[in-house]
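Hypothesis: this fold can be encoded by more than one sequence.
Test: take the structure tokens below, design a sequence, compare later.
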């Protein structure tokens, strides 16, 4: 009887693992690739803008860069920023890793 319970537990464990793996893969497949590309572009544009304008914050401080500044200096295109209602990017200087927080602001009346 104990051997049977052990086999059932192994089968259930494998089944749960397969279900979780399948759901994870489906989630990665259907991510919005345009937004992911825009996010990477915003990170590099913000980093270049901060470096060019000597706005480097101290460790654990942050700098807020508005999207209009990045568009006016031709770091990113206006189309994608407007599509996702991006308002600003907050750049925080960390000890090991820099942090970028994208802030959105959509007015429902404009659409």
């Amino acid at each position: 009887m104990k051997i049977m319970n052990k086999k059932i537990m192994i089968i259930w464990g494998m089944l749960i693992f397969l279900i979780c793996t399948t759901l994870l893969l489906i989630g990665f497949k259907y991510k919005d690739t345009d937004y992911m590309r825009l996010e990477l572009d915003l990170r590099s544009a913000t980093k270049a803008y901060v470096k060019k304008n000597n706005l480097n914050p101290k460790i654990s401080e942050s700098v807020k860069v508005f999207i209009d500044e990045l568009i006016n200096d031709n770091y990113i295109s206006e189309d994608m920023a407007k599509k996702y209602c991006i308002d600003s990017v907050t750049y925080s200087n960390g000890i090991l890793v820099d942090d970028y927080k994208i802030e959105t602001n959509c007015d429902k009346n404009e659409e």
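The two ends are 65 Å apart (CA to CA). Residues 33-104 form one domain.
Hypothesis status: open.
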